[in-house]
Design goal:
Order of helices and strands: HHHHH
Helix content: 55-70%
Number of strands: 0
Number of helices: 5
Strand content: under 5%
Radius of gyration: 14 Å
Structural class: mainly alpha
Low-confidence stretches: none
Distance between the termini: 21 Å
Shape: globular
Mean pLDDT: 81
Length: about 120
């Protein structure tokens, strides 16, 4: 929840904070399925977020998700993590950055709700 809370504040690491939050929750939900219980690969993260969004939203559009993922994960999140910085942290692109963080924030909230729903009933997973 601390990662999620950091993502709620206006800062250049919002995207990284939201992805970190989702990674922690997905690691806890599916730790028995992971090759190493402490490592969530990019492909597993993407697959599980999709699974959650599909489960929680009957009108989930996988193609739209894949398009947003390409913009958000490899282009922004990976750049930030590897010290290249965000291409969107520029006053001229603030609306694009806000749109992207809103999308990732939505994904994060859905993962949190899914986690809460399933934490109470751990045997469902």
């Amino acid at each position: 929840m601390a990662y999620y809370k950091l993502g709620e504040y206006k800062n250049p690491l919002r995207i990284e904070s939201f992805f970190s939050s989702m990674t922690v929750l997905i690691r806890d939900l599916w730790k028995k399925e992971l090759p190493k219980e402490d490592y969530v690969s990019t492909s597993v993260l993407q697959e599980k977020i999709k699974l959650i969004l599909r489960d929680r939203n009957p009108t989930f559009d996988e193609a739209e998700f894949d398009e947003e993922w390409k913009k958000c994960y490899p282009e922004e999140r990976c750049s930030i993590v590897h010290g290249k910085g965000s291409k969107l942290i520029d006053p001229r692109t603030i609306h694009e950055y806000d749109k992207m963080t809103n999308i990732i924030g939505y994904w994060n909230r859905e993962v949190i709700y899914y986690y809460i729903d399933n934490f109470q009933n751990r045997n469902k997973i």
